[in-house]
Amino acid sequence: MSVLYPRLLGDAAKRLHQEHLQSSITELNARHALRHPAAVFAATGGRRITQEELQQLRDDVLEVARRAGFPDEGRRQDRVSFDLEVARLLHERCGLVAGEAAVRPIWAFLALVLLPDVSYWRYPRPPGDRVLGTDITRHVWGRLWWRAHLLALPREYDRYQLLETFGEAAFDQIFARRRSIGGSRALVRTIAEIWPAVDHGRVPEREVLIDVLKRLSRWGAVVEFESLDDDELRRQVLDAAIESAARLRAQAPSAGPRHAGV
Length: 262
What we know:
By secondary structure, the chain is mainly alpha-helical. It contains 13 helices and four strands. It folds into two domains: 153 residues, no CATH class; 98 residues, no CATH class. The strands form two sheets. The chain has a two-stranded parallel ribbon. The protein has a two-stranded antiparallel sheet with strand order 2-3. The longest helix is centred in the C-terminal third of the chain and has 22 residues. Pfam families: DUF6339.
């Protein structure tokens, strides 16, 4: 059974965002809350999260943020580590199922009501999609839950070992194609598993990844990836990676011998 979170509706979320943009981190810290008069719950589908659980979630995220330098600006690498740790924390602790996690207003509540200080610390003066939930692929918290959800391994001791395979920009390329690629957990995990072995030569890794994703999207019109067993799925993804890497290496101005490999 899923845990149900408050949903902060659009107009109230926009007003809060405009107010928060004018506030300091200290002011936002004092403004955080466990409820909001404009927030509502789904009528069915699970049990409502308690205020004690919301407070614990806030405390846990704050602890990770402080290790990353909160409320000071901190180093870029610290924020990368923060994202990875919070992705795992949210996926383990929130009790969400994918259907509930796809509801954008719950992420607006977390960003604007429960964790405004950490949200605006992570992305100072953020554009609306970082906090409003209009685009989960860019939301300060929603993107992290989904990153962990899509990459979590089902039966491994360290379920989240694939989280570090891709940086934020690279994973955005995958999740942005959620209808053709990002909607399949098995396919996303397989891409992450084979990726460290892909030889992209002097071609930027991001270019190779984009080409692989385009290739897999085209193949997806005739191949049902979800129906493949693990070995066949891995072979399909390896074939796509080999073809993409070889083609881009051959086109690169300083390309070496034209051979494919991983």
